[in-house]
Amino acid sequence: MNEQTTRRDDFLVVRDLKVHFPVTRGILKRTVGYVKAVDGVSFTIRQGETLGIVGESGSGKSTVGNGILRATPYARGEIIFDGVNYKDVDKAGMRRLRKRIQVVMQDPYSSLDPRMNVRDCISEGVRIHKTMSKAEADARAEELLELVGIRRSFADRFPHEFSGGQRQRICIARALAMEPEFIICDEVVSALDVSIQAQVVTLLMEMQRMFGLTYIFIGHDLSVVRYISNNVAVMYLGKFMELTESETLYENPLHPYTKALISAAPIPDPRVDRVRERILLTGEIPNPIDPPAGCRFCTRCPFASDECRETEPAFREVVRGHWVACHKVAEGGAWRG
Amino acid sequence: MSDNILEVRRLRTSFFTDTGELRAVDDMSYSVRRGEFCAIIGESGSGKSVSALSVMRLISYPPGFIKGGEILFDGRDLMGVSDKEMQAIRGSEIAMIFQEPGTALNPVMTIGAQIEENIRLHERGVSREETARRTAELLELVGIPDPETRLKDYPHQFSGGMKQRAMIAMAMSCRPKLLFADEPTTALDVTVQAQVLEQLNDMRTRFGTSLVLITHNLGVVARYADSVKIMYGGRIVESGSTDDIFIEPAHPYTMGLIRAVPRLDLPRSHGLYTIEGEPPDMSKTPPDCCPFHYRCPYADERCGKERPRDEEVSPGHVCACFRRDVAKAAWKGADA
After folding, report:
1. Which of B279-310 are b and which e, b meaning 16 or more Cβ less than 10 Å from the residue's Cβ?
2. Could B268 and A273 be called an inter-chain contact, meaning their C-beta atoms sit closer than 8 Å?
3. pLDDT in tens, B89-135
4. CATH superfamily of the B4-93+178-196+209-335 domain
């Protein structure tokens, strides 16, 4: 795959993805409502690039990943992976497709089987999909271990003998074992110390270069996400609020929520941090069973007006490549206040 | 009355495990002034939480053991008080907030009952009505809307941020003189983190409580802390005022921590910095060395053989490092 010279512009196309979980009640499991975890998001990822998705807990960012993985039966909308529409593939085809898509999850403590040594942890997927012999799979596992910066001789050790950062490296090696083309990284550094986070992000970027991988990088910390992402989407209550090129997003954020996220990120310099202006949001993300009318962010937005509380703003391209859903942002990106 | 609410002198706490003695806190001395906002920074395994638990005398034996040292709280040596006296101090004069509000709260008691319990345990003769009124007031102070209704809720009905606010309310319910907050915002979203920190700081000034905030992220304390202590391998390797630490860091580890915080205010080309390697295994690290020498870019032979002593860099700014001058020159060079 690294010999590939032409990269697809539309490697992954997602159109109007919705994931509505039914809320049931009573012994008859009557559906009384829906948790609209993802409520219509669309995006395209170019091969070899990274889309970052930033949002708070409950924003639906992980569910977007699950939708693409087909890990939930409630996903609606169109997903086209490398020219193949999910609609057109049968169960066996989906299995083949899913091999090309891997995931690395947030908690490196619970995502590794404590009773398996790391060699088996890494080669388990290969063994299940029967793409190579046991001996080959083991040799490959050790190679990968070395590639992610852990000594080969540690292959017989068990997950509990490793630190959080090392475990996350093992999870990355496990994802790479399937020789995927696409990896969903779901909050992969959130559980790690700041001093270790950069190690894992750097490793992911190296692997991307080496294997021509395409990523979705999900996180709640914009300052980490922007380093690895080409484009960043800011998500709130199941919808994208803003989507643009990573550097543009932080240099020229248009949506008030993005501005608040940027201003909440800590800066390790008291001279800068004590004097800069901060937008402290009040309250927390509302319940997605019953999202507010109008703009979803209106209950916490310091600039919300009647218009915002009545009609939902469209997600539109105000400047080339810069999408935003806010009534207060005019065509061209000017603030209408 | 001394200026310091807390003085810890030469504290040593160890855990005895199958693989031998693990020196979690290894000769640590520090003090906290009255009303101060003090931050203790360190990675997982640096001993930062154990140092707080030691002051609270919450180290269970076995496997843990406070091997030595003095803990002077408001003039009293806590090492000498009985378990019963300590119980009376804990929760009323010294309180603590933990990282995971989900596990620190009792799931089968209402939020209100848990806060009331603390008040009733520590203050005799307060009427039921008075306790309930104070509880509602506290919840309102920490920014929980509609407190009279919410105090009848169970923890699972609260979001992560609200649970942490409830924990703050509970910790402040007896107006403690000293509050330890152990990674209180780590499990929370960035926007809620900022709210909770603001809240903690507000409660500190309102009640005149001294606050010791323990965290792995240097970035979060720059705005609030008066003083910062950097822990590594069970010791304080550098301490000073917030400006000393952030603007004139002296220890190579502190420099690494500052550079490791991803900067949203600088262009991406600034790059991500990482401290190579992993925190040391304290059961395998010999006592006579600088624990950071395995990962230090400036370490020489002496660092692996001898333990660096605390030296004053400037008044109130202390650092334990043999290679201070080399590190400083490199830091200044990178800054320019």
Report:
1. bbebbebeeebbbbbbbbebbeeebeeebbee
2. no
3. 998 999 999 888 778 899 999 999 999 998 988 888 888 899 999 99
4. P-loop containing nucleotide triphosphate hydrolases (3.40.50.300)
